[in-house]
């Protein structure tokens, strides 16, 4: 019985030793390829680095692209605004030129027929609309709308007499009269005694 127990103990010891050697042998002989593991680790690190680089670079790239697109859009808008402003300015200039031309032609071709009166002593020395002092003996007149300081030829339709006067005042504003002549101009036209006369007005470029 004692031999049997000893034998069993020895067998158990040998079995344990064999199992340990087998484990060590398996651990040492397991095909762990160290270079392959290192390469795989490096590959994973490289992929992680590339992913991080893309993650950081993508917003910057997108921001730069967005800024470029914004600048391009802004440039196009400014260019369009400048073109619109230039076109508007050209249009306004063209319209003003045409209006000025029409106005000039209208003034040059101005002709009016109506009743003219005259004024003298009571207004002599007073300031006229263009800043001059009224001289009752000068050849001047008052008109409602003709440009101040322009010249007009006034013809008395009843006797054919005419005189060139300077428009330096505004009026008349009473009755159906179209012109108020100075005493000197009315005298030359022969309407002083009557007080009024039937006249024709034409625009001229100078007093001569």
Write a short abstract of this structure.
The protein has 208 residues and is an alpha/beta fold. The protein is 53% helix and 20% strand. It has a domain at 111-204: RlpA-like domain (Barwin-like endoglucanases, Beta Barrel).
State the low-pLDDT regions, or none: 20-32, 51-58
What would the average pLDDT be, to the nearest integer? 74
Name the CATH class of the domain at 111-204: Mainly Beta
Architecture of the domain at 111-204, according to CATH?
Beta Barrel
Distance between the amino and carboxyl termini: 167 Å
- Radius of gyration, rounded? 57 Å
Strand content: 15-25%
Shape designation:
elongated
Oligomer: single chain
The proportion of residues forming helix, as a percent range, comes to 40-55%
Q: Could you say what the CATH topology of the domain at 111-204 is called? A: Barwin-like endoglucanases
DSSP summary, beta strand count = 6
The helix-and-strand class reads alpha/beta
Find the CATH superfamily of the domain at 111-204: RlpA-like domain
Widest sheet, order of strands: 1-5-2-4-3-6
Strand count, sense and barrel status of the largest sheet are: 6 strands, mixed, barrel
Instruction: Report the total helices.
Output: 3
